[in-house]
C-alpha cells in the first residue's frame, strides 16, 4: 500500500503539453501512461487530491479502470518535439521551451499512443477543504519534484499529518450505497453572502484542523466558521475571534444557548439544553481553543449567560 499526491482541478492540469483530463473531484481521477508513476498507483493506495495551493481531500483507490490502445493529442515544442515548455506571462513569443530554449507562439500538436487510467475513489472520499496547505503536504514527499501531477508520499508521514488535523483515514472498503432512489428536486432561494467568509473558514481550518472547538474531531462538511463577536455588528473576520463549530453547535452558540467559560475554558449549556441527551454530556467539556482572544470569549459568555436566568 502506497500514498500519492495527485494534482487535480481545472486549468492546473493543462501544462507541459497536456490538454486536460476529465476528473470528477470527489469521485474519480483520470491520468494516462505519459504521466510519471501512472502504472504504480494501485487499489487501496492512499491518495491526496490537491490544487496548486491546498489539499482538497483524501481517499483510497477503490478500483482502477484501464483503457489500452488509445491516442491523445499532445502539444510539443515545434523545434525539439518535446513537452518541456512554459507559457510566458507578458513576453512575446508566448512560449519558451525549457529544453532547447526556442521561443514560439503556437505549440505543435502530435498524436501519441497512451493507456488511460481512471482511479475511482468516491466511496472513501474525505473533504479537507484547505485544512492542509501544499507546503505542508510536500514535507511528506519522497522526491523533490514540484511539477509532477502524480508524486509519491511517505505513507506514515501522511497518516501523521492527517492525524494532526483530526482527519480519520479513509476506509479500505466503502459504505454500501442506498438501495432505493432518494427524493430530489430544486428550489430557488436568494441569500446574502458574507464577503471573505470562505477565506476566513480556510484560515481557521489551517489553524485548528478538522476540529469543532466544542465537540472535537468532525468531518469538514459539518464544520462552520463561527464569530465570537456578532458579524452583523462589526462585519470583520478577525482570526483570533473565530472558532470552528459543528453546524448544529454553531446555531446554538450563536443563539446564546451554549458558551465557553473563559476562566475554565469549559463548555457551559443553557438549562434548556441540559434536557437533551445528545447535548447534556457537553456540559463541562474542555474546549479546543487555540489562538483565540479570551476577551471575546468572555464577552460572548457574559451575553449568553445573562439570558439563562
List keywords for this structure.
27% strand; 3-stranded antiparallel β-sheet; alpha+beta; 17 strands; 5-stranded mixed β-sheet; ph1033 like fold
SSE blueprint:
Blueprint (H helix, E strand, L loop, with lengths): L2 E5 L20 E5 L13 E5 L4 E6 L2 E14 L8 E3 L7 E3 L5 E2 L3 E13 L5 E2 L6 H5 L11 E4 L1 H10 L32 H12 L2 E2 L3 E2 L5 E5 L3 H4 L7 E5 H8 L3 E4 L4 E4 L24 H12 L4
What class do helices, strands and sheet pairing give? alpha+beta
Report the sheet with the most strands, covering strand number, pairing sense and barrel closure. 5 strands, mixed
Report the top-level CATH class of the largest domain: Alpha Beta
List the secondary-structure elements in sequence, H or E: EEEEEEEEEEHEHHEEEHEHEEH
Written overview of the protein:
The strands form six sheets. This protein has a five-stranded mixed sheet. The longest helix is centred in the middle third of the chain and has 12 residues, at 197-208. It folds into two domains: 3-65 and 117-164, Roll (ph1033 like fold), CATH 3.10.590; 197-305, no CATH class. It contains six helices and 17 strands. It is of the alpha+beta class. The N and C termini lie far apart (57 Å). Helices cover 17% and strands 27% of the residues. It has helices at residues 134-138, 155-164, 197-208, 231-234, 247-254, 294-305, and strands at 3-7, 28-32, 46-50, 55-60, 63-76, 85-87, 95-97, 103-104, 108-120, 126-127, 150-153, 211-212, 216-217, 223-227, 242-246, 258-261, 266-269. β6 (85-87) and β7 form a beta hairpin.
Amino acid at each position: 500500500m502506497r500514498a500519492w499526491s495527485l494534482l487535480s482541478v481545472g486549468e492546473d492540469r493543462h501544462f507541459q503539453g497536456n490538454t486536460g483530463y476529465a476528473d470528477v473531484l470527489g469521485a474519480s481521477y483520470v491520468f494516462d501512461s505519459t504521466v510519471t508513476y501512472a502504472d504504480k498507483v494501485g487499489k487501496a493506495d492512499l491518495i491526496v487530491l490537491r490544487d496548486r495551493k491546498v489539499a482538497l481531500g483524501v481517499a483510497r483507490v477503490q478500483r482502477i479502470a484501464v483503457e489500452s490502445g488509445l491516442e491523445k493529442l499532445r502539444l510539443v515544442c515545434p523545434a525539439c518535439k518535446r513537452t518541456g515548455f512554459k507559457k510566458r506571462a507578458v513576453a512575446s513569443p508566448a512560449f519558451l521551451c525549457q529544453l532547447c530554449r526556442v521561443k514560439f507562439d503556437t505549440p505543435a500538436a502530435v498524436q501519441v499512443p497512451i493507456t488511460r487510467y481512471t482511479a475511482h475513489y468516491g466511496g472513501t472520499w474525505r473533504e479537507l477543504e484547505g485544512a492542509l496547505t501544499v507546503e505542508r503536504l510536500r514535507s511528506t514527499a519522497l522526491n523533490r519534484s514540484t511539477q509532477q501531477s502524480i508524486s509519491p508520499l511517505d505513507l506514515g508521514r501522511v497518516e501523521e499529518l492527517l492525524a494532526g488535523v483530526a482527519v480519520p483515514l479513509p476506509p479500505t472498503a466503502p459504505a454500501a450505497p442506498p438501495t432505493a432512489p432518494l427524493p430530489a428536486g430544486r428550489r430557488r432561494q436568494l441569500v446574502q453572502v458574507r464577503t471573505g467568509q470562505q477565506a476566513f473558514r480556510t484560515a481557521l481550518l489551517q489553524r485548528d484542523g478538522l476540529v469543532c472547538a466544542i465537540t472535537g474531531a468532525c468531518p469538514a462538511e459539518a464544520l462552520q466558521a463561527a464569530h465570537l463577536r456578532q458579524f452583523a455588528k462589526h462585519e470583520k473576520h478577525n482570526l483570533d475571534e473565530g472558532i470552528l463549530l459543528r453546524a448544529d453547535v454553531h446555531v446554538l452558540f450563536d443563539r446564546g444557548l451554549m458558551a465557553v467559560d473563559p476562566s475554565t475554558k469549559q463548555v457551559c449549556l443553557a438549562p434548556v439544553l441540559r434536557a437533551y441527551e445528545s447535548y447534556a454530556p457537553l456540559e463541562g467539556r474542555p474546549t479546543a481553543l487555540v489562538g483565540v482572544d479570551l476577551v471575546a470569549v468572555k464577552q460572548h459568555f457574559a451575553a449568553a449567560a445573562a439570558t439563562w436566568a
